[in-house]
## 1
Amino acid sequence: MDAYINHKSNLILNALPTQEYERLYTHLEYVELPLGKILYDPEEPIRHAYFPLRGAVSVVTVLRDGGSVEAGVIGKEGVVGIPLVLGRETELNRRAVVQIQGSGLRLKATALTEEFRRGERLHDLLLSYLHAFITQISQTAACNRMHRLEERLARWLLACQDRLGSDEMQLTQEFIAEMLGVRRAGVSVAATQLQERGLIKHKRGFIQIIDREGLEAASCECYGVVRREYQRLFENRAATG
Amino acid sequence: MDAYINHKSNLILNALPTQEYERLYTHLEYVELPLGKILYDPEEPIRHAYFPLRGAVSVVTVLRDGGSVEAGVIGKEGVVGIPLVLGRETELNRRAVVQIQGSGLRLKATALTEEFRRGERLHDLLLSYLHAFITQISQTAACNRMHRLEERLARWLLACQDRLGSDEMQLTQEFIAEMLGVRRAGVSVAATQLQERGLIKHKRGFIQIIDREGLEAASCECYGVVRREYQRLFENRAATG
DNA sequence: ACCGGTCTGTACGCTTTCAGACAATATTTT
DNA sequence: AAAATATTGTCTGAAAGCGTACAGACCGGT
C-alpha cells in the first residue's frame, strides 16, 4: 500500500490511466537515489528511465575540460531518460546526476519504449513533459548569459525547493557551483548576500529558505517563466514548479 | 520538377518514404523566408510548421527586458514548430525568426499533427531530430556560461555556414550580437580579431569564411559536439553540420 | 580529546565583458 | 549632389566573475 502511494507521487505515473499503469507496474523497480549517483554518462548507453518520487536529478552538459553546467532539473514532475523515447540510447554531451537524494522507480529501456510506441497516454504525457523541459533548458541558456550570479542562485534554490517539497536542502557550495558553472567562492559570496537580506540561512552543507516570497523577488524572471510552463503541464491534475 | 527537387532539399522530407511523402504533399505550401521574418512569437499560437529548404531560422529565448539569446538554429536538416508535435500550440519564452533568408515548405498545424499521430516514419524522424536539437540547446547553455566571445562567434559562424552551404553570409553585427546575447561593439571586436587571424573577412552587413579549418580550431568544442549529433541523425542518408 | 578531511568566508590582482558614447564609413533616399 | 540612415571601429570607466590562495570552522572517526 505504501509502495502504491509512493508510485503515485511521480506526477507522470500518477496521470496514467489504470490500464496503462498496470501494464507498466510489473516492470517498475524501486531504487534509492543517493546524492551524486550518476544515472547516465555521456556516450554511455542509457539502460533505464527513472521516475523520481522524491529528490531531484540534474541533467548537466559536460565539457571537455571536465567542467559542467546544469541544463535542467528533474523531480517528481518528470522522468530521466528522455533520449530513449526519442530513439537514442546515448547522449553525447550530458550526464544525469542525483542532486538531492531521494528515491524513484525505474524501468528498463525496452519496457519504456514499448509502452511509448503504443501511442497512448504515456506517449502524450512524455512529449508534453518534454516541451516543458525544453523550455527549461532554453531559458537557462539565456539566463546563463544575461543574469547575475545572485539572481541565478535564487532561481536555482527555488527550483530545488519545488521539487523537494521541504525548505531545507543538503547542498554544498561546491556542488552548487558546479551546477551553475561558477567558482565555489562565487557561490559563497552570493549565498552570504542572500542570507544578509534575510532570504535564506546556510551552514556547512545545508541551506534553508526563510523568505520564499523575497527569494522569488530576488531571483531572475527565469524562475517564473519555467514554473508557469510546468504548471500548464499538469494543470488539470496537480501543480509543481 | 524543380519544385520537387526543392522539396527534397529538406532532409526530413527527403527521408520520408514515398507513401508518407505523398500524403503530406498536397498540404505543403512553398513560402519565402525573408530575413527577420518571425515564424512564431512567445504566447502566440503556432499555426504552421516550417521545413526550411534554404536559409536558416533561429529559435531565441526572449527575456522580459526585450533582450534575446539564441537557443538553437534550424536549417534544412530540421523543422520549425516542434511544440506542435509535443502537443502544444504556444511557446512561453521563445521566438522563431529567420536568420538567413531563404525558403521553405510549410504545413498547417493540424496536417502535421495528424501525420505525426500515425506513428510512422515522420513520427520517428521528428523525435530523432528533436534529440539533436536538445543537444544543441543544452550545449549552448553551457557554452554561454563558459566560453569566450571570440570562440562563440566562430562556432556560430560555422553552424551558419553548414546550414547555408555557401561561405558568404549577409549578417550585420547588430543581428549577431542579439543572437549571441552580447553588445554589438563586442561582436565588432571579436570579428576584427578573427579577421586579423585570417579566418574570416567582413564588411558592412557581410561575412565570408576564408579558412574554415582555422575557424574550427578557433571555435569552442561546442561546434564539434553538436555537429556530431546532427551527423548521427542522418548518417545513413546525408550529413549536415 | 585529538586529528584529518571537508566545507566555508574572504582576499588579491586579473580577464572578460558591459554601458555608453562618438566618429568614420558605406548605403539609400531625396 | 546632398542629406539621411545604417553599419562599423574604437574609446573610457566600471562591473562581474575568475584563478588562486589561505585561514578558520565544522564534522566524523579513533
Note: Strands of chain B lie at 29-33, 38-40, 48-62, 68-74, 94-108, 168-169, 200-203, 206-209.
## 2
Amino acid sequence: MVTIKDVARIARVSVATVSRVLNDSELVRGNTRERVRQAALELGYSPHGAARSLITNRTHTLGVLLPDIYGEFFSEVIRGIDQAAQREGYHLLVSSARDDLESALRSMRGRVDGLIVMSPALDAGASRRSLPERFPVVLLNCPPSDAAYDSLGIANFEGAHAMVRHLAGLGHRRIAIIRGAEKNFDAAERLRGYRAAVKQLGLDASPGLELPGDFSEAAGHAAARTIVESGLRPTAVFAANDCMAIGALSAFREAGQQVPVDIAVTGFDDIPMARYVEPALTSVHVDISALGERATAWLLDALGEPSVRNLRRETLATTLVVRRSCGAQSQ
Amino acid sequence: MVTIKDVARIARVSVATVSRVLNDSELVRGNTRERVRQAALELGYSPHGAARSLITNRTHTLGVLLPDIYGEFFSEVIRGIDQAAQREGYHLLVSSARDDLESALRSMRGRVDGLIVMSPALDAGASRRSLPERFPVVLLNCPPSDAAYDSLGIANFEGAHAMVRHLAGLGHRRIAIIRGAEKNFDAAERLRGYRAAVKQLGLDASPGLELPGDFSEAAGHAAARTIVESGLRPTAVFAANDCMAIGALSAFREAGQQVPVDIAVTGFDDIPMARYVEPALTSVHVDISALGERATAWLLDALGEPSVRNLRRETLATTLVVRRSCGAQSQ
DNA sequence: GGCCGAAATGTAAACGTTTACATTGCCTTT
DNA sequence: AAAGGCAATGTAAACGTTTACATTTCGGCC
C-alpha cells in the first residue's frame, strides 16, 4: 500500500509538503507542487480515508438509517439523499436497522459526520436516547419528540383529510379506511386525518369502517375481502398507502366488484406504480426524493455550523392526485 | 468524545485491557472484565471506527458502486446486498457514480474492505483499470473483460432467446424488439439473444424491426408510436426491459390498439409493477435481490481468504413469466 | 554584505485504536 | 523457601494522516 511517505520520498520533499499539496494549501511553490503531483500520480497514490478521518475528525460520510430497505419508498428517499450528498462530495453509509437501531447507531460512531434517521415506530424513544448528545441528526418521518433534533416529515394528516374531503365531494357518505401498521407514526396521522374529516363533514362513522392493516399488499387484500363479506357496504375505501390499495383492487376484482362503479378505492404515497394499475389509482402524492434531498441539505447545513442552532421542524405538503379509481370524471 | 482512555481510567486498568475486553480476548479475568464493561456502559463508550480501521486495516465496510441509483432494479439489488452484508456485520458505503467511476473508486480507498461494482457501460475498461490490483472486487452485470475480477451477471442472451421462442410458439412471425440503451452490456446481450432466436427459428428479420431505445418508459412509448405509424406491422413487440414495455402499452392504448389481441407486448426484468399493469405483462424474471446477495457472499468469501483464488464467473438463470400481455391462454 | 521579513519547507506531536513484548503476581513444584 | 511457569496486566510502538511550530531559504533593502 502506497502511503504519503512514499510520495514524499519520490518527490524529495517532506510528508507535510505532500499533505499540503493534496489539500490545496496555498503555501507551496508551483515547482514543488508539480513534483508532488507527478509523484502521486506515478505511484497511484490516494490518501487513506481512515487515517485522515482520525486526525481531522471528519469522515465526509453521512449515515442513513432506515427501518427497512424495501420497495419504492426507500429507493426514492435514498436517491434524493444521494443526489444532495454527492453534490457536496459526501459519501453515504446506509444501514437498514429494523431490529436494532441502537446497535446500528453505535457501530456508526466515528464513521459518519451526521445521521439521517428514519424510524416511524411510535415507541422509538428509547433507541433515540442512544444518539450522542450534540451530534448532527435529522429525523425523517418520526413522531415528534422532545429530543433536540431537526425533524422532517410529510403532511399525513392534511393529505388524508383532503382525500376524505375529495371522496365526500363525490357524494360518498360511507368511507372505509384500511389502516397502516400499528404503532407507525405515519399510519396514526393518516388515521387521525381520516377521522377528523369524517367528523367534520358529518359522514358515517362506524368503528367497523376502520379496518386493520400493515401497509402490505396482503393486508389490503384481506381488508377488501372483509369489506365484501361483511355487511358494512361502504361506497369508498381509502387505503393508508398504495400497496394496500393495490391489494384491495385485486380483491375486489376477484369478488366481481367493479372499481370505481361499485366501490371507489384510493391510496396514499402515489408510488410510480399507482398510475399503471387498473384502474389507475387516485392517491396522495408525496415527493419522496425531495424529502431525502431536504433532509440532506439540513444535515450538511448543520455540519457547516455546529454552533447552537434552533431546531428545525417541517412538514412537506402533499397533493391530491385524482385518477380513475375514485370515480371522478376528471380523468 | 469519550475514548478508550477514559474507560481505562474509570475501570482502573490499562487501555490494553479495555481493548481486550471489547474484542472478547480470553486472557482477562472475569472480575476486571466486568469492571471494564461497566465503565464502558456508564460512559456510553463505543470505539472509534476510523482509529480502529487504521490499525487493523479492516473497515468492516463494503463499497457499492452503481451506475445510477434509480428505480426498482437498484432498490432490489441493494436490498440483497444489505441483507447478506448485515448478516456478517458489514456496513455498506453506497455511491452512484455514473459520471466518474474513477474518482468514486479513489475516494473509497481506505474506507472499504471490498467493492461491488456495477457498470454495464461497454466502454468502462478505462475506469476499471483504476481499481487497485489485488483488491477484492465483484463485478455486477459487467461486460466480460480480461480484468482479474469475479464477475456475476444474468442470463440476458438466454432470457431474450426464450422470450422470442415463446412468442414464436404462439404463432408470431414478425416480432419487433425495442432495444436497450446504446453501449449497455445487458442491452447488447438481449439484442443478441433476439437475433439468434429470430435467425434460428426462421422468423422475419427486417432491420426495421429493431427499434432504438434507452430503457426509459418514454423510449418505449416512442418506439410503439413508430410501430403504429410505420408500415412494419409486427404482431408482437419484445421490449428489452419492462419500463419500455409499459411505455409501449400506453402508446398502443392511445392508438386504439388492443393488447394482446391486436399486438402482443412483452418485457424483461419482471419488476414488481409488471403484474399490475393492464394487461399484466409477460416478462423474463430475474431474481435481482439474489444477484446482490450472491455478489456479497462472494465478496465476503474473498475477504476471508485473500490468497490467490481462481476467478469466479457466473450467470444467473432467468425464467419466463407468462401473463396476459402476450396473448397466451395460460393465465 | 549583512539583515529582515516573508515565503517555503521540515519536524514532530497528535488522533484512538490494537498488539507485540515486557512486567507483575501467584501458584506449583522441588 | 527458591525457582519456574503461567496467567493477567501494563507499556509503548505502530497505523497514515494533518498541522502547530521550528527551521531554512530567498529576495530586497540599507
Note: Residues 13-17, 20, 27-29, 32, 51, 53-57, 110 of chain A lie near DNA strand C (CB under 10 Å from a C1').
